[in-house]
Amino acid sequence: MASNNAQDYWKANLRLVLGCLVVWFVVSYLFGILLVDVLNTINIGGYKLGFWFAQQGSIYTFVVLTFFYASRMNKLDREFDVHED
Amino acid sequence: MELQTLTFIVVGFTFAIYIAIAIWARASTTSEFYVAGKGIHPVANGMATAADWMSAASFISMAGLIAFKGYDASVYLMGWTGGYVLLAMLLAPYLRKYGKFTVPEFIGDRYYSKAARIVAVICLIVASLTYVIGQMKGIGVAFSRFLEVSFEVGLFAGMAIVFVYAVLGGMKGVTYTQIAQYCVLIFAYTVPAVFISLNLTGNPLPQLGLGSTMADGSGVHLLDKLDLVLGDLGFAAYTEQKGSTINMFLLTLSLMIGTAGLPHVITRFFTVPKVRDARSSAGWALVFIAILYTTAPAVGAMARLNLMNTIQIGEVGSAEGNLLYADRPQWFTNWEKTGLLKFEDKNGDGRIQYYDDKNKDFAATAAAAGWKGNEMVKVDRDIMVLANPEIANLPNWVIALVAAGGIAAALSTAAGLLLAIASSISHDLLKGVFRPDISEKQELAASRVAMGGAIIVAGYFGLHPPGFAAQVVALAFGLAASSLFPALMMGIFVKRINNKGAIAGMLSGLGVTLLYIFWFKGWFFLPGTEMMANKPENWLMGISPEAFGAVGAMVNFVVAWVVANATEEPPEHIQHMVEDIRVPAGAGSASNH
Fold first, then answer.
1. I need a surface site. Which of A28, B129, B246, B307 has the fewest CB within 10 A?
2. For chain B, where do the domains classified as CATH 1.20.1730.10 start and end?
3. What's the pLDDT score for residue A34?
4. Are the beta carbons of A23 and A65 closer than 8 angstroms?
């Protein structure tokens, strides 16, 4: 494996991680804590939106995010030919 | 059937399953003992991780915490789930690629330093032991409440069960037992929640029920109703923020980083066959955790509403608005016996008044009604989950199930922690530092002895809980967040960090965190040695000691980076090792030291 390839793979990985962590930050810290009062003026069903993100929405997003990351990484592994076996 | 008999049958049945699994899944090599031979399917591993992670605190305490803190308790919900995102992306796959047995082993190798390894072992033991004491206490309490045996007998029974399957089976036995325990605990948690959600809102899914309208035909949403009921009695609104924003922010961050840095959770990702399994396994763990964590807010809110409605049966201020003490339900009497629920008839009217007597705006209303203070002088929040099925009049088998679920949650976490302690003693200290020449057989024997020893120490502390047991939880997360997580993450992501940087970072991160915790909670938690009262006015920028781990982690990152850049580069073979960890290829063969 050429070392250039390994570096490109690592850069692609870092971009992906960074993107995922931005979403991670937005749903929990931004929507659930910092902007909670603003979002609470919006109602979805019987939930205030900020409250919903803090107690439900952020957790659902975390689950989706983790699987999204895993599947994208598995694709990157093959693209850069660094996959196992 | 009588509740006690039923509980004996249900709990006894689950114990028989755990023992049977232990005998079936005996460990015969060190690899099986430490990491289950790296052969666990990612979904199974996710389930075991979930059981490992969700302790008596998640099962029993969290919903109660939410019930009484409302929105502010969101920090626990986000903090204890969001850490898995960090774990999945920043640590788990790389540590699996590295392919060793323990967390201190990675730190020692990456920073080519026995000192770093020993610092990591100390952090691991303090953090894990802290946790295990709480689990032991949880086991004792669950037994004494439901089986009406003494606290000690309950504790010994729990210790004996853990001893059998953890010592025999090691990680292999623990993993399969945890899968069974997850099934027991999640069933026990969700069944009452579904019934209660149906009762109150007509929606069987608690996650949706929490956002639904009340089933009484009023068309009012449950959360609005709860805000209203609480407001009428002077309590703060359930969905509104009460604490400071910066503290919520940092506490959530500390819990997330701490979660990702706790060794007994990280070790679980060493047990899967491949790097890509480690990635998906973190996702599965989160799915199984999320089932409980998204149910908990519903359980908390509904339990609070039920409690308020049980006591305040009519209009606030009217003579008949409050429940007659003589008419109190059976569950009320049951919990009064344990001392966790206490009533005091302050105005002598024979009725129960439950309101916020510290709210000055409400004082006039209370005085006009002839109330002389809140009469529910003690409502221990830990009883909410356990009392919930009784409050909602659910059948006895549901109550028996909740008892088995609480015990399963405590046992599974205790076993995972004890295993982390035992392997760091036998593998990191004995084999790694003091006696590198022992054979695999001797090491395996040593880890079994270490496990037995750890169980006895944990049992001793469970019987004689140090006064500071509850306070040191902040310490466990502070240690994991401020020392282990940054060292692990930088070990993978920043090639330039050398031994000096890592050790300086760990010690300074740990140092400021410990200093801050001890400053407000007493040196080594000795009562009376606090430098300042533990109150929000005294905290630095309003940051509570529990939330300081995030600050410690930042200190660790900065110090490590500065020191490493001021000193020499790490040797070439270490840099190659880091490059190798970053790509999944070649992880198939797990190395055995």
1. B246
2. 3-226+239-304+391-466
3. 95
4. yes
Q: How many angstroms away from the CA of B117 is the closest CA of chain A?
A: 27
Name, in order, each residue with C-beta under 8 angstroms of B505's C-beta and a sequence gap of 6 or more: B486, B487, B490, B497, B555, B556, B557, B559, B560, B561, B563
The residue-averaged pLDDT of A66-84 equals 92
Decide if B50 contacts B413 (C-beta within 8 A): no
DSSP state at residue B217: T
Rounded to an integer, what distance in angstroms lies between the CA atom of residue B77 and that of residue B480? 18
Judging contacts by C-beta atoms under 8 Å, the chain A residues touching residue B286 are 62-63, 66
Which residue stretches of B380-437 are H helix? 383-391, 396-423
Residues of chain B with pLDDT under 70: 1, 145-146, 465-474, 587-593
Chain A residue whose CA is closest to B226: A46
Residue B152 and residue B8 in contact, taking contact as beta carbons nearer than 8 Å: no
Length of chain B: 593
Cross-chain Cβ contact B282/A37 below 8 Å: no
pLDDT digits (tens, 9 = 90+) for B241-282: 988 999 999 999 999 999 999 999 999 999 898 999 999 999
Name the architecture of domain B3-226+239-304+391-466. Answer: Up-down Bundle (1.20)
Contact B223 A48 (CB under 8 A): yes
Does A22 contact B at CB distance below 8 Å?
A: no
Q: Which residues of B86-119 are buried (b: 16+ CB within 10 A; e: fewer)?
A: bbbbbbbbbbbbbbbbbbbbbbbbbbbbeebbbb
A33 interfacial to chain B (CB closer than 8 Å): yes
State the DSSP H helix or E strand holding residue B222, giving kind and residue range, or none if neither. Answer: helix B222-232
Q: SS3 letters for B348-360?
A: CCCECCCCCCCCH
Q: Which residues pair with B342 in a beta bridge?
A: B378
- Residues in chain B within 8 Å Cβ distance of A82: 583-585
